[in-house]
Amino acid sequence: MHGRVKVKSTAQQEEEKRKEREKKLKIYIAARDGCFTKRKEGVFDDEALQLTQQLLSSNPDFATLWNYRREILMHLETVKEVDEVQKIYEAELLFLESCLKVNPKSYGSWHHRSWVSARLPRPDWARELSLCDRCLSLDDRNFHCWDYRRMVVKMFNVPVDQELKFTDRLIGSNFSNYSSWHYRSTLLPLLHTTASELPPMQAESPKSNRVCEEQLLKEYELVQNAFFTDPNDQSAWFYYRWLLGRAELEEMISCLHVSREEEQVAVVFSRPVNVQSGCLLLVLDGQPHAVEWKSIHPRFKHSPVWICNLPPGTISEISNEHNLTVHWTEKHSRKDCTLFTGHAESWCQDSATDQELFRSELSVEKNSVLQSELQSVQQLQELEPLNKWCLLTLILLMRALDPLSYEKEMLAHFQTLKEVDSMRSAYYSDLCSKFMIENTILKMEYAEVRVFSVSDKNLSTLCHLDQLVLVTHINLSCNQLLCLPPQFAMLRCLEVLEADNNSIGNLEGLYHLPKLEAVILKDNKIATLADLEPLTSCPRLKRLDLRGNPVTQLANVESELAKLLPSVLDLLL
Known about the structure:
- The protein is α/β, with parallel strands linked by helices.
- 45% of the residues lie in helices and 12% in strands.
- The protein has helices spanning 11-40, 46-58, 63-79, 82-102, 107-119, 125-138, 143-156, 160-173, 178-191, 213-229, 234-243, 364-383, 388-401, 407-420, 425-447, 557-564; strands at 253-259, 264-273, 280-284, 287-289, 294-295, 303-309, 322-328, 333-339, 345-349, 451-453, 473-475, 496-498, 518-520, 543-545, 570-572.
- Helix 2 (46-58) runs parallel beside helix 4 (82-102), helix 6 (125-138) runs antiparallel to helix 7 (143-156) and helix 9 (178-191) runs parallel beside helix 11.
- Residues 194-208 have low confidence and may be disordered.
């Protein structure tokens, strides 16, 4: 123990301790073997119960013995009266308390207690709730106890507002109680989504519900007190980040694209889905059509983009007009599109801006409060200029308020974050890349163009590619990309790809892009002909620029590429 003088033991004392340990070990092994023998012989008597208790008292993490003990108890249920079973299980709960004193975080003890409580003829949930409170007062981060408490709360039908007050008390005594903050995040959507009567605890939180604005504003004040008290404690910052989040998007069809030349229909969903047989119905000119839906890449069973090919000649005649509707029967969602006479393609797409895809929709009041929050965190940042939680929260607040207006400040904060928290610099690079892509998508929508340019943005990853289905020209040059991921196959309309000066060595995402004509990949890491094989699935590819790639140093590379990609007429090596 710290602060105590170490007392040297003599050789005789060491020998006595060794003999004592051996004696205890022999007793333990004999009892263990006795238990195993009884279980093998199918003996479920009181002696077996006593033997397992003797062993588990000293070692409560012996899972096999807990299993045997449950078998004994289930047998006793069949031969005892209800009142006797009640007493047996009450004694079992007392025994478990002694085990938890040996190891308060024993998986076996907490699991067995849950099992016993569920089988108790007349459970005393108030007593169990009190036990949880005592355990959490000793260790407020004992996740075994938190799990058990949630079960007790559910069985006891504890009102949500009472549980919320419980988190108030724990957070008030210790702002660093991450478990309480997390529990609070599961309670608020249950209590403050509607003005209806207080519901009892449910098995799960509603997936898409968000906290009502009035309560949200109160939570901002609570969490602000926490991180001003201890700016370096991560618990409150994590909760604050959750508050700044948004509800899950409504599950729906967000875009429908039809190509006359390919006679292909592409459907974009608001999230990755697995299209089962019959859940997508295509209606063309008022007539249902049986088609086969495929994900955009063989690797994806769940994908936000699915495509189908129409029978040859169905919509190829340029002088005809066609009306298409796709029904997602599972979610009662539909999207309509008209392919007009003389048009090679047509689409119907929901706006990312209108959907508030990348930020929460702000009322005047919430906008005012978040502006005030931003000012408060900026004041804290002046006092703690190198606090990573403060810097990250500033970025999230700016993103929630106006990501385009605050873009310059956000980039500066990301740079500081990479310097003060260098171990997580890759994470910050990916997060910054995500935000920059979101901003560029918004700018592209405002300009109403189909060109997406993120050159020289230090991108380390690609995301939101399902929002780029209609893009015809993409510029990824001068970034830090290592590959074009399989999700890149979502770009069904892409004609020109520029990706110079990256570190790309994998082109897996250039898979069956029907309109791709030019690929410019100067100064990357493409080293073998096998790296270029995905391009063989792009039927219109005419121009390929590979200057500055290791593959150009291979023997006979030009002739080999001519065999691999015979459609390419303009090959630059």
